[in-house]
Design goal:
Blueprint lengths: L3 E7 L6 E6 L2 H9 L6 H4 L4 E8 L2 H13 L2 H11 L7 E2 L4 E2 L4 E3 L4
Parallel strand pairs: 3-6
Antiparallel strand pairs: 1-2, 1-3, 4-5
Length: 109
């Protein structure tokens, strides 16, 4: 199911991090995993999904992405540690599944 998401990728535990936004997290993760994007994530080998938030609207997700991109590195690492203390890759590239563990923001359950 497609839903707006903000996500954080990492190259390794406490490594280089990347904040992104998408309307289809499964599809976007497959693209990152296969190295289909030229640029920052491909150049630095950033493929591990370590954090994500689901949002009710794309506008909300974009607003949150902009907020997170302004955060300093320590704040981003703390956010990851709160939700994923072991820095596990939440995306299984073999099955295409994403592990639960991050949060729904502004979404009725």
């Amino acid at each position: 199911m497609k839903r707006a998401a903000v996500y954080i990728l990492a190259s390794k535990r406490n490594g280089t991090v990347y904040v992104g936004v998408t309307s289809d997290l499964h599809h976007r993760m497959a693209e990152h995993d296969q190295g289909l994007f030229d640029g920052f994530t491909k150049r630095y080998g950033i493929k591990m999904l370590v954090y994500y938030e689901m949002h009710a609207t794309m506008d909300d997700a974009i607003r949150r992405e902009k907020q997170l991109k302004k955060w300093n590195r320590a704040w981003k690492l703390r956010l990851i540690e709160q939700m994923n203390p072991e820095w596990e890759n939440l995306f299984n590239s073999e099955t295409g599944e994403i592990a639960f563990g991050s949060r729904d923001v502004g979404v009725d359950r």
